[in-house]
Design a protein that fits this description.
Shape: globular
Strand order of the largest sheet: 1-2-4-3-5-6-9-10
Length: about 325
């Protein structure tokens, strides 16, 4: 796996298995783990064939001089454990909550991507005391406002090919090889295919080829992890900023605007990037760093008033 200079891997044991995360230590950041009292930033990667914490590795080093950085490989991805199971939405909400409880001592700013960002919103609704603020990219459960990924041809084919042997063949042929990964990145994830370079492909490939990596990936591809975030968004009380790549393959920026309109008290900021797909943190990392730096103080000084429609039942 690709780890930026000055970062090391650590592990925690969760209900779902061993979870690997990356954090800054020593030079050039020169802060010991024991004495690190800086505010924490947690970076959570999205899902797709070969996803991992690498997705944020061009962004989080820019904050390491000022913050304690935590960037985990979620269970089923990267170097974390890959239990052989069909994953559900509730699993990842629980994984995010458990990670924050185990690694953070107080309300924490979480920066999350895509479907994982939607899980993070659900986690923040369940346990808002764990969260200081949220900055999310392409926030969607992939089933909002009638635009349901599960009705796409690819998802329906994956649902049809649900036998274990067929699952393995589908994964090996379509995902766990450099040709499949490069094709997905160039055609679906990035707005500009020339921005995909060999290191990105190799990082995704290493993650995709871990033992049992197909279980989480195919749960995502089949649509098992999709849900309608609009049914929950009015319950969010944590200050939130959304960054949206206009070239997102599955969900356009109108989804984000409608979510913001449903809860402007919590979702304080919506910013559309016109020249990227759904991972601006990989496609334009410098711009993403700049936006995060701009939004962090704005969220800190933007008190949230509970929406009259908010419900915690």
């Amino acid at each position: 796996m690709f780890v930026p200079p000055g970062f090391v891997s650590r592990t925690i044991t969760t209900e779902y298995g061993r979870m690997v995360y990356y954090t800054s230590q020593g030079e050039p950041w020169a802060t010991s783990e024991q004495a690190d009292e800086r505010e924490t930033l947690v970076f959570l990667h999205g899902f797709g064939g070969g996803s991992s914490a690498y997705e944020w590795s061009k962004v989080y080093p820019a904050f390491a001089a000022d913050y304690r950085i935590l960037a985990p490989d979620l269970i089923g991805w990267g170097r974390s454990d890959h239990p052989a199971q069909d994953y559900q939405v509730e699993d990842y909400i629980a994984i995010i909550i458990e990670f924050l409880e185990e690694t953070c001592s107080g309300p924490t700013t979480v920066i999350a991507s895509a479907l994982t960002a939607a899980f993070t919103v659900r986690a923040a609704i369940q346990q808002p005391e764990l969260f200081k603020s949220l900055i999310v990219t392409t926030l969607a459960g992939l089933a909002e406002f009638g635009q349901d990924y599960r009705r796409s041809g690819f998802a329906q084919f994956a649902q049809f090919a649900s036998l274990p042997v067929l699952n393995q063949l589908l994964y090996n042929a379509g995902v766990a090889n450099s040709f499949g990964i490069r094709g997905y990145l160039e055609q679906r994830q990035f707005a500009h295919p020339e921005r995909v370079y060999p290191e990105i492909v190799e990082a995704y490939l290493q993650s995709a080829q871990q033992d049992n990596a197909e279980y989480a990936a195919l749960s995502f591809v089949r649509g098992d992890l999709c849900f309608d975030l609009s049914q929950y968004i009015t319950q969010l009380t944590v200050p939130t900023a959304i960054i949206w790549g206009r070239g997102s393959e599955f969900t356009g920026p109108e989804i984000g605007r409608r979510l913001k309109e449903m809860n402007p008290q919590a979702i304080r900021i919506f910013y559309q990037l016109d020249d990227v797909g759904f991972t601006p943190q990989l496609e334009l990392p410098g711009v993403t760093v700049g936006l995060i730096r701009k939004f962090l103080p704005q969220l800190e000084h933007s008190p949230v008033v509970l929406s009259p429609s908010a419900s915690f039942a």
